[in-house]
Specification:
The chain is mostly beta strands. It has no helices and 30 strands. The protein is globular and about 45 Å long. 51% of the residues are buried.
């Protein structure tokens, strides 16, 4: 069962976007592949999904790309994470499956018990299983490495998911952020910002959960439900996914600005100082973002059809 919690607000200011000088972009071999989710793999490479390309991709830290097509057409892979078994696990938005790919490229798929689409975020849980969001049927799903499913109903449509402190699962859902124990008990926190919806979420180095909120806000919430909100330079920016960086800050993508496909990556310190960096590709729509084992930030450009590497500012 979910309970509701309330919290106080705090605000900070942002600086205008700066020019990126330490960015390298790697184009995908096929046009309109739609690179989306990305994660660091156990082999030192970055693994990513190709939403429209219907493939799982791997890029080494030197930029060598390998692609693995999914067995069925129009599976639309979205989220991806490194699993506890040394493989990568991913969601299939349209295919109604959870997929597993080894670092050698062997793919196994598990069909969900719920006959619907809409699998998005996925994360390796503290219990040795994989947890994922089911946005269209308002559920949080769990799958063991043996392929056994459990589903938990939640009040709203969940999108992104992350592991928090004390073996908890956190997720974004519409106008709210939710917290789930591995036993299935949850708390729901309504966000008080006006307009838009919550999107990405990640645990920061300070033990709090950091999330993005359209329009133009990055939020921080503690395990006790205390909230602070930090505005971007433009209120009509749409921050997307977020991750903890190697520099002790949080990094996020900006996929839309004033109704135009966005071209920015942002950084926010745990004190709330926001800096935004312009990506040189027009209409690139940065989407997923992850810290690589090489000490850089790696992100996908959904419309730009690139995988990008950005050296963290220290």
């Amino acid at each position: 069962m979910f309970s509701l919690a309330a919290f106080a607000l705090g605000l900070a200011t942002a600086t205008p976007a700066q020019t990126v000088s330490n960015l390298t972009q790697y184009p995908l071999p096929a046009a309109r592949s739609g690179p989306d989710g990305i994660t660091a793999g156990p082999d030192g490479a970055l693994w990513f999904t190709e939403y429209y390309g219907n493939r799982i991709g791997r890029i080494s830290t030197t930029g060598a790309i390998t692609e693995y097509p999914l067995p069925a057409a129009k599976s639309w892979p979205a989220g991806i994470t490194a699993g506890p078994d040394g493989a990568l696990w991913f969601t299939e938005y349209y295919g109604n499956k959870i997929g597993r790919i080894t670092t050698a490229g062997v793919i196994t798929e598990y069909r969900l018990p719920t006959a619907d689409r809409g699998r998005l975020g996925i994360v390796a849980g503290p219990d040795g299983a994989l947890w994922f969001t089911q946005v269209l049927d308002s559920k949080i799903g769990r799958i063991t490495t043996a392929g056994v499913f459990t589903e938990f109903a939640v009040p709203c449509c969940p999108t992104a998911i992350a592991v928090g402190p004390d073996a908890t699962i956190w997720f974004t859902a519409g106008l709210d952020v939710g917290c789930f124990t591995v036993a299935g008990a949850g708390t729901f926190y309504p966000i008080q910002a006006a307009g838009g919806e919550t999107e990405g979420i990640a645990m920061g180095p300070d033990g709090a959960l950091w999330f993005t909120f359209a329009y133009g806000i990055v939020g921080r919430i503690t395990a006790a439900g205390d909230l602070a909100e930090y505005p971007l330079a433009a209120a009509n920016n749409f921050p997307n996914q977020i991750t903890a960086g190697p520099d002790g800050a949080l990094w996020f993508t900006v996929s839309d600005t004033n109704g135009v496909v966005g071209n920015k990556v942002g950084r926010i310190t745990t004190a709330g100082l926001v800096t935004e960096y312009a990506v040189p590709t027009d209409n690139s729509e940065p989407s997923g973002i992850a810290a690589g084992q090489d000490g850089a930030l790696w992100f996908t450009e959904f419309h730009g059809n690139n995988i990008a590497r950005l050296e963290a500012v220290r």
